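Each letter names a residue; the fold follows as tokens. Both lines appear below:
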Amino acid sequence: YKKICDDYKVDIIKAVGTSALRDAKNSSEVLKMFKSILNYDVDVISGEKEAYLSFIGSVSSSKRSLLIDIGGGSTELIIGENNQILNRISLQIGAVRITEKFFKNIYPIRDNFYNDAINYIKEQLNNFKIDSEIEFIYSVAGTPCSIATALKGIPDYEVDKVDGEKIYIEDIQNLLNKFKIMNPKD
């Protein structure tokens, strides 16, 4: 990315770190490394700030919308309307964090571990109240892109082909059932 910025003669680079840098034991070392590459500091932002930036950068509707940002370490849920954030929360239920907590080296995934993970996620989601009708639901980050590319049968790195893709709950359930019986290599 630094090379791309140099090729386009970018004057100022603004970079932020999220959950991984908030939690990493060696975040100060990583931040020094980034600064040496970028010649700029990387700001480690809060989950709430991450939620806000995800929302204003992703939601195009002025109607009441929910944005779900599923990262590796955290998941942000944001409700907004007319570019105003009405409610947001950052939860420690990212895809990698859940995998490490419930499924590390357990393949195929047994139903009891799967059910424990689902119950844990539901408990965490109880911390977020939706008190009004939502018109649109958006989702950003690696997990929804991986779901969309898997549904289309294309490589995970071709995310540009799934921008704006609609995903339905049945699609997600079908993928879950398929992936539960696979190992990570498959």
